[in-house]
Amino acid sequence: MDNKSNYKYLLSDLTALKGVGIKTMNLLKKKKINNIFDLLWKLPKSSTDRSLSSEIINLKIGEVQTITIVPQKYSFPRVRNLPNKVICTDTTGEIDCIFFNSYEGYIRKILPLGKQITVSGKIGYYKNKYQLTNPKYISEDSSLIKQKHNKYSLTEGITEKAYNKIINQIIKNLPILDEWHSKHIQDKFGNISWNDAIKELHKADNIGSYQKNFYQRLAFDEIFSTFLVNSEIRKKIKKIKKINKVLDIKKQNNIIKKLEFSLTNDQMKALGEINKDLVSSNKMFRLLQGDVGSGKTIVSLLTAYNSVNSGFQVAVMAPTEILARQHFTLAKKIFPKNLKVEIISGKSDYKNKKIILNKLLNHEIDIIFGTHAIFQKKVNFKKLGLIIIDEQHKFGVNQRKKLSDKGGDNCDVLLMTATPIPRTLTMTMYGDMDLSIIREKPAIRKPVITYSKLESKINDIIKFIKKEIQLGNQIFWVCPLIDESKKIDHSSAVKKFEYLNNLFPNQVALLHGKTSLEDKEKILNQFLINDFKILVSTTIIEVGIDFPNANVIVIENANKFGLSQLHQLRGRIGRGDKSSTCILMFKSNLSVNAKKRINILKESNDGFIISEEDMKIRGFGDVLGFKQSGIKNFKLADPVHNYDLFILAEKEMRRIENSNENINKYKPLVKLYDRADIINDMA
Ligand code: ADP
Ligand code: MG
Q1: Final residue belonging to a domain, choices 131, 146, 161
Q2: Whose CA is nearest to atom 17 of ligand 1?
């Protein structure tokens, strides 16, 4: 294969490399390194200076040094556990090279008596003599030992020497790829090519040079590739022609007038943006992003109503039955009686389901609510015009595209997420969609007051809870997720349940990872209708469900959670008109840094601000919703530190979109960095 200008070399199996057999390949595969390209991003962690540093007399004990010596005498004791030894000298002194587990023949070969040999390794001192144990990089030619030597965090089973050999081989054979960036972008990075940038990346002297041209260019490549893929998907969806909907604004406003509240400016703005999509002859593919409690549901229901009034059916998908039911109930309440709304529930029996399916097929149902079950194959519509998906932040790009395809050409798509994330992440994760944001919260909402409390002060908390229960209020009690694996997380919740149930008999219920789905829905429903007062749970309580009567949330071991997560948990209260309280419990006094974090939470109720801060503190990988999203992490790019690169990439992407430029030249970039399945149908 001609490697020199072909990116495909980089996507070859690792066994294409000399010295890599099945065994090494499998070791690396375990580390998710599947091809040569993947290996490029395992960067040297540090370097060792192996320049000729010393004569024996000047050796520094404990440091890695390189010396040229002459082997004088072997000592191969035939006793178990005693190492083989080679006594060596230079003009200034004597040193013992010690070998554990090396054969005599090998030692004779690499350290032949009387010859000048250069060795390198960590210098030891034993019984008044310098020692070099298992010396590395033995060579007769001192110039063969590189002055600086990269150290990679090694995969178990692969030696440093072998690993360096692999990397050096790749760097040597790096294909010279045609430049894909525009002149303008090349200029921004000092015109360094991709190949040169990779070479720089692996130079020991460049470790940590995040600000240098080569690093910035490579980070930009990564971001830009993602944006380009997003843009392609969006363009493709936008190109789909649909029968436009006709807006009956009078009907819509009649509903709005009858609401118990008036819509916020942001709700009105979002509704306007969505309506514009409905009446256009291009398919809508829009994300409605808004903090918990910002009032997305009513916006989406009005959208559903508008579509129905234009003669279409609507499917509303929620992540849980209880949430689907809450939306369904609200729809029945605010829409005229002649509008036919239904819910498909896992509990409805076979006969009932069949009736509903038939009605959908005959357009005898206008809006159907349900969980993901409404996207099963057997569910068919006569005239589906809109899909609404609530709390969908667990979907990745590909899943979304599939959903959009499923509804057919005439079907608009509105997704909702209650995970406010920093702008750079929104661009990355949702760049395939148009975006409406609700930032403002309904004015009547009283902000949640947030306190921090030491665990030892639990009696104060109990006293407080007692008072709240007497006032008729309900309490969430969240126990920490001790282990991500969720194997042991429920034990602490069980203990807390027993403790609280003792204090408040028959007023406490428990939810944890092992609770069956059915029980879970039952318990949540009972909590909703105020059958009991305290719900002890791990973090599995769903986002999105409205518990207007719950106004206290206690979060144990709060330092286990990130800010965004704490904010999400806190969002489960404060939905009614009562004032509400969030109590963050800590095991010990907070460090200065932890205090800073918690203060952000106390001072702000704006999920967007909190997520920005969260990301600055913890890095983007941990911000809620990103890890679970199935979207792969960037290798070099960092949404906090490379903010300007994200903005630049967005600008460049828009420029290309507007100029209708042929994007063929980006094919290697996208093939290397991103999801090949989308690019297969890229021209
Ligand atoms: P989310 O954006 O988290 O889905 P919801 O749509 O569930 O939020 O709304 C939360 C609560 O706020 C609901 O009880 C809803 O009736 C109420 N609400 C929505 N919009 C307004 C508004 N403009 N003024 C007052 N209350 C509102
Ligand atoms: Mg919601």
Answers
A1: 146
A2: 295
Q: What is the pLDDT of residue 679?
A: 47
CATH number where 453 lies = 3.40.50.300
Residue 475 has pLDDT above 70, yes or no: yes
* CA-closest candidate to residue 266, choices 404, 436, 36, 469: 436
Q: What is the dihedral of CA 182, 186, 192, 196, to 10 degrees?
A: -30
DSSP string, 131-163: EEES-EEEESSGGGS-SEEEEEPPPTT--HHHH
pLDDT of residue 488: 54
The token pair that represents 592 in the structure block: 């200065």
Q: Which ligand is nearest to the CA of 542?
A: 2
Q: Helix, strand or coil for residue 335?
A: coil
Nearest CA residue ID for atom 26, ligand 1 = 442
How far out from the chain centre does Cα 294 lie?
24
Q: Which residues, including other chains, have CB under 8 Å from residue 147's CB and lie 6 or more apart?
A: 49, 50, 51
Look at the chain and report how many structural domains it folds into: 4
Q: Give the CA count within 13 Å in the CB-facing half-sphere of 418.
A: 23
Dist CA 151 CA 284 (whole Å): 51
- Give yes or no for residue 186 having a pLDDT over 80: yes
- Pair (600, 586) in one structural domain: yes
Q: Examine the domain organization and report whether 463 and 575 are in the same domain.
A: yes
pTM of the model as a whole: 0.73
What number is the average pLDDT over the span 511-528? 86
Residues touching ligand 1 (Cβ under 6 Å) are 261, 263-264, 267, 290, 292-298, 418, 442, 444, 544, 546, 575
Instruction: Give yes or no: residues 18 and 86 share one domain.
Output: no
Segments forming the whole domain that contains residue 92: 51-146
Whether residue 158 lies inside any domain: the answer is no
Which atom of ligand 1 is nearest the CA belonging to 298?
Answer: 6
Sign of CA dihedral 622, 626, 627, 631: negative
- Model confidence over 39-53: pLDDT tens digits? 898 877 776 666 656
Whether 623 and 614 have beta carbons less than 8 Å apart is answered as yes
